[in-house]
Amino acid sequence: MNLIDKILSAKSNKLPPHQGRLLISEPFLRDLFFKRSVVLLADHDTDGSFGLILNKPVEFRLNEVIKNFPEFDAPVYMGGPLNTESVFFIHTLGKTISQSYEILPGLYWGGDIEDVRKLIEQNQLSKNDIKFFLGYAGWGAKQLEEELQHKSWIITEARPSEIMLKQPANLWPSIVKSLGKEFEIWTRFPADPQMN
Questions:
Q1: Checking CA distances to 93, which of 74, 129, 149, 173 falls within 20 to 30 Å?
Q2: What is the pLDDT of residue 151?
Q3: Nearest CA to 25 among 191, 193, 196?
Q4: What are phi and psi of 179, to 5 degrees?
Q5: Terminal Cα-to-Cα distance of the chain (whole angstroms)
Q6: How far is CA 26 from CA 5, 14, 74, in A?
Q7: Are 48 and 138 in contact (CB under 8 A)?
Q8: Taking CA 137 as the corner, what is the angle to CA 135 and CA 110, rounded to the nearest 5 degrees?
Q9: How open is the CA angle 16-107-73, to the nearest 5 degrees?
Q10: Tell me: the pLDDT tens digits for 19-60?
């Protein structure tokens, strides 16, 4: 069995999409945004899905993205191809940031950006507490399920500590390896097969 056959034989989706789970792109996915991406499903229901790509940092700083915002030493990520003029964020601060939405225990999405500003100004916020994203990834009703049938993604459970602390370059290979030996081969497939 050659390498490509081994990779294809490893793919299966044992978990359904659900709020708080991760989508792991298969190694052949060529899409500019989703190639070797890890997407947090912040919301999923019968109307569709809302996700944030966790491992695609951009060159901008937060105060360059949000006008008149205090400087804050935290990376900004490309959250997805939709609504890229808007900033989204996830955090571990719970109701310290009002209007937050709990994704899973210990991890929250959104909230009042003015609360974030105050925490930064009062030096009460660490870059390990919060992540910022330009844009988001979205799927209409049943669209994500169709992509799963085409085996574009593997779904796994999310751990807040891994989401918040793992270096973006290591996130995809680390999670793929954690899926088991049959998936570890994905990490050995070149990012650009034409360069092999």
A1: 173
A2: 85
A3: 191
A4: -75, -15
A5: 18
A6: 13, 15, 28
A7: yes
A8: 60
A9: 125
A10: 999 999 998 888 888 999 999 999 999 999 999 999 999 998
